[in-house]
């Protein structure tokens, strides 16, 4: 007979996590610089909290409402506002940050082969319909691809970003 499975209580789960309130860790940043759907932002923000990452988003008028609606934790989250995505990515790269895009490309690393981030890493997610703009592709250090078997050509931005964040955080 196998031993009984015991689930942890919410108190046990909380005590095993970070001891202080969230502040910008600065190690992982999910950059949704060209979002199309507001629902994706809230979902990705929840994943950012789960893996200890920050979210970079444009200062569009609808972003605050989308983040508030999607942040089911109801606690402050680390969100960086990015007004000029190309200048921000160039600055991050110049500062030594690894900049990875999630995109379909010939030279892409498969998600299963992606190592955990060992230094500050920005994960760039493109527009849901058009992907990462060509002018931003030149600012990437590498590209990650999520293999698919089905008929679709890509996953929802929040789902794709969540998978890559977990892998970069070393949690998968």
UniProtKB/TrEMBL annotation:
Keywords carried by this UniProt record: Methyltransferase, Transferase
UniProt entry tagged with the keyword Methyltransferase: yes
GO molecular function (one): tRNA (guanine(18)-2'-O)-methyltransferase activity
One Pfam family it belongs to: SpoU_methylase
Domain of life: Bacteria
Domain tRNA/rRNA methyltransferase SpoU type positions: 36-166
Its EC number(s): 2.1.1.34
Record GO biological process: methylation; RNA processing
Record keyword Ribonucleoprotein present: no
Enzyme class: transferase
Gene3D superfamilies: 3.40.1280.10
Name recorded for this polypeptide: tRNA (Guanosine-2'-O-)-methyltransferase
